Amino acid sequence: MNLLRSAALRVPAIRRLRDARDTLLAERDTLLTRAAATAQEDCEAAEARGTSALKGLIVTEYSYRPHRRPIEGAAGGSRLTARLRAEKERYAVTLRGIVRHVDSLLRIPRTQENSARPFWANDWFSLYGLIAERAPRRYIEVGSGYLLVSRDRR
């Protein structure tokens, strides 16, 4: 009997975690099956049109199990962590400033209720707190939603 199963039989919290994991794995398998079927349909439709359908999800014949690696071992990782440590207080000040806007952030709905208003489940909406905190006179949007915020205040 493996260690997880043994612990799950004795500890209810571990049993619930194992059950949740099993549920998520089953959901993942269902989603992969649906995605593969959709990709197959897309390929067949593209082939019928004489075009290419390669975009988005690529389903492989082998399992892919990503794992965490220490950032220090990655290319540039030690330089990045050194920079983050050196700028720690500056980042903390910015984050504390963003936290002051929590009430405003909580008023934003999770899903779209009005096409003229922001909502959280929107891929293009991510930097409200930073802009609210810095209150720049102007910001410049570059490309698809990346913002350059001026250091000048209003």
Structure description:
By secondary structure, the protein is mostly helical. Among the domains are: 47 residues; 50 residues, no CATH class. The chain contains 6 helices and 2 strands. Strands 1-2 form a two-stranded antiparallel ribbon. A hairpin with a 3-residue loop joins β1 and β2. α4 packs across α6. The protein is extended. 0% of the residues are buried.
Mean pLDDT: 76
State the total count of DSSP E strands. Answer: 2
Q: What is the CA–CA distance across the termini? A: 65 Å
Number of helices: 6
- Order of helices and strands, N to C? HHHHHHEE
Q: What proportion strand? A: 5-15%
Q: Using only CA atoms, what is the Rg?
A: 23 Å
Placed side by side, the strands forming the largest sheet appear as 1-2
SS-based class: mainly alpha
Features:
154 residues; mainly alpha; two-stranded antiparallel ribbon
Topology:
Blueprint: H1 3-10, H2 12-49, H3 77-86, H4 88-99, H5 102-106, H6 128-134, E1 139-142, E2 146-149
Helix pairs in contact: 1-2, 4-6
Quick structural overview:
With 154 residues, the protein is mainly alpha-helical. It contains 6 helices and 2 strands. Strand 1 and strand 2 form a beta hairpin.
